[in-house]
Amino acid sequence: MERQSRIVLGLVALSLVVAGLAWAATANERSLAIYPAQRIPVRFDHKQHLEAGAECTTCHDSARTSASVKDRNLPGHEECETCHDLDAARKGAKTDPPSACNVCHPGFDATVHLAPPKLDAPPANLNFNHQLHVQKKVDCATCHGAMTDVQLATRQQLPKMATCLKCHDGHQAPKECGACHLKQPSGRLQLTFPSGILRPMQGDPLGLDHGPRYEFNHGNRASMDRGTCLSCHTESYCQTCHDALQKPLSVHPNDFITLHPIQARQDSTRCSSCHRAQSFCVACHERSGVGQNADRSLRARNVKVHPDYNSWVEVPGPQHHGVAASRDMQSCVSCHREESCLTCHSGMTGRQVNPHPDGFAAACKRVAASNDRACLKCHTESSLSQKGCR
C-alpha cells in the first residue's frame, strides 16, 4: 500500500513537472530550437561578484571582439585566477576569496576524480556578432538583463526576440528575419534543428502564435502577412492541406456542401485555386444527379435547371443557351463537361452546329497561327489545312 502511494505521488509530481515545462515552453522559456539545452554543473553567483566590484568584461572580456555566435565567451580558470588563487588552494592553503575546486565544482574531490564534470553550453542557432553590438554602444544588460539578482546564469538570461525587436525595427537595425535567424540554401529560414523545431509560440511579438489549433485560425493572419509566412513556408507546404484531396474544417466549415453554391458564384476564382471545375466539381455534381451525364435515375432533379428544350437549344433568342453561355460560362461548366458542347459543336461529330460568329473565316487563320490547340478540339489537322487555316 505504501509503495502504491509513493507511485501515485510520483506520478502526480511528474504531471506537475510536465505541466510546468509545457507552460514554460510557451510563456517564459526560451525556444530549444534557438537555444539548445545546457548542462552547467558549476556553482556561481553573479550578484555576489557584482557587489564585490566585478564587471561583465572582468569575466567575459572576449565578448568584446567576438564576431560569431560559436565563440565561447565563458570564463575559464584564467579569468577566475584574476581574483581566486587556485595554486595556493591546491596546496591546501586558505585563501580569500575561497579558491578550492569544490567552491565552484560542487562535490568534486581531486583525490577521487580526475577532472570535474564539463560544462555543456551549445551555441545558439542564430547569427550574432557581439563585437558589432559593443561598437554600437549596446549595454550588456540590454540583451541579458540586469544580473544584480541572478546567481547562476542559464538560457533564461539569453535575449528573447521581443528584446531584439526594440532595436531591429528596420531603422536602427535590420528587421528581416534572416538578419538573425539561420537560413537554408533556398533563402527560407531553417526550421529544424537537432535541439527542436522553430515555431512562434505564446507571446510571439509579431503575433504569429503557432500554438494549439493554429491550423484552424491562421487564414486571416496568412492573408495579411503572406510575405512573413513565405519566409518559412513554401507554396507546396500550404498545398499539403489546401488541395482537392483534403478538406479540413480549417478550410471549409461544416455542411459546406449545402452552402458552397453561394460562395462558388461569388468568388469562383478562389474555388479554382484548389479545385478543377471539370474534374472535381462536375464529377461531384454528376454523382449527385446534377449534370447532363448524371445517372438517369437521378435526372429528375434537373427538370427546373433549364427552360424548355426548344427555346434553350433549337430556337435562337434571349433564352438560347449560347447567349447564356456567353454571359456566364462558369455556370455552364459547373454541370457540363467539354464533351457536352462537342456533341453538337465539333466538326468531328455527325451533328455540326457552327459556334463561330459571322465573318469568323477571316480571323480563322490568325487564331490558328496563334494557338491551334483550341481549334483541334473540334477540327482535325487536315480539315484546318483544307480551310487554309494552317
UniProtKB/TrEMBL annotation:
The keyword Signal applies. Keywords: Signal. The keyword Transmembrane does not apply. It comes from the Bacteria. Pfam families: Cytochrome_C7. It comes from Cystobacter ferrugineus. InterPro entries: Cyt_c7-like, Multihaem_cyt_sf. This is Cytochrome C. Residues 1-24 form the signal peptide. Residues 42-105, 127-181 form the Cytochrome c7-like domain. Gene3D superfamilies: Cytochrome C3. Coiled coil: none annotated.
